[in-house]
Specification:
Length: 120
């Protein structure tokens, strides 16, 4: 099991390090068609840095397939507290989505992402 401390590190650097381990590229026995990775735990997820104006301008886009079904959500809306006092998803979801985007889009993607644990 590998632990990555996200305190004062940028979102992309943490996601890149975690994706590398989840794919198994840190091992000399790496094969692309098998899951030979270890479990990854990311701690201090709430203390991850986002540089520049990405907190306001970074967007996550989903599309349901229906007319008018496109949903756009900013990084600030995803992670920050709302008027009710509870975060929509939190920093955990932002890190998970960043790592998911760095993994290969194949049948092993979901098996690899299940090896990921994120803690605030």
């Amino acid at each position: 099991m590998i632990t990555i401390d996200a305190q004062d590190k940028t979102l992309g650097r943490v996601a890149s390090a975690a994706a590398k381990v989840l794919m198994g590229k840190h091992k000399p026995t790496f094969v692309k068609h098998q899951v030979v990775a270890e479990e990854v735990t990311i701690i201090n997820a709430a203390k991850v840095k986002v540089t520049g104006t990405k907190e306001r301008t970074k967007e996550y886009v989903r599309y349901s397939g229906y007319p008018g079904g496109q949903k756009i959500e900013s990084y600030a809306m995803l992670t920050a507290d709302t008027e009710v006092g509870k975060a929509r998803r939190g920093h955990k979801e932002a890190i998970r989505r960043a790592i998911l985007g760095m993994l290969p889009k194949n049948k092993l993607q979901m098996r690899r992402i299940k090896l990921l644990t994120i803690q605030n």
